[in-house]
Amino acid sequence: MSIVWLASYPKSGNTWLRTVLTNYLPEAGGPASINALIGWSTASFRYTFDEFLGLPSSDMTPEEILRCRPLLHEALAEAMPPPAFVKVHEACVRAPGGAALFPKSATAGVVYLVRNPLDVAVSYAHHDQRTIDRIVTHMNDPAANLVGKCPRGITNWLPAPMLTWSGHASSWLDQGELPVHVTRYEDMLANPRAAFGAIVRFAGLDWDAARLGEAIGHAAFPRLRAQEEEFGFHEKQPTAPSFFRAGVAGSWRTALRPRQVRALVDAHGPVMERFGYLREAETFLAGEGAAGA
Fold this sequence. Notes:
Layout: E1 3-8, H1 14-24, H2 46-53, H3 62-79, E2 85-88, E3 107-114, H4 117-128, H5 132-139, H6 165-173, E4 180-184, H7 185-190, H8 192-202, H9 209-218, H10 221-231, H11 252-255, H12 258-274, H13 278-286
Parallel strand pairs: 1-2, 1-3, 3-4
């Protein structure tokens, strides 16, 4: 069996997609629990690495762990029953030694979700409880890693190379080896049936239009927020007030300062233009927003 990687930069709709896919599966039998979604980051768990490879990751350097990650992904592909979905936030880079971090032999396909980086910055800051300035710096850092240093010891997560926001997108879309289906977060909002339907077909799942409609309904943001309020959500950061915050596009217009918009545009303009995000940002900077720089 091979894996369909659900790849995205953080806060780009990955959890929403996993909720729809979980509810779409025939065995869902009603609204699925947000704490039992398919595809949680199995490949990034330290205990998964230790169990599947029989290696003590706590005694290894980040470079040594990264060198072994392709082997882990191949082992996961063999062990996971279908349908095999795995969420990943890592960039599609080469491991030390030159092997692809996500081997072709372990891959059925890649669903890559992309979201306007201006909205990503706002949502990411809420999720991590960091300032927007710090998140913008992180999104513009080629050496960014999803798992930072832990002053009290080793985290439960493996090091995860991120690159910049645009470097992350380009690493998946321009790698030339793995089949990739690209979906914009904004299109998921505007026409969820079309966007999620295309993903279902790409992933090779049996097509059922009625079941997809039910799955999208079960994954509506008010329902997800209600579940989180009642049961909690294990993927929420401990310091964040909530995980499911708004689920909208365009909140950056009131949340970001012009200098923050400019910093992201300067760093990611070509990729923003590739996905239709640049013109709105430049219009904002040229208008009354620039007065508050």
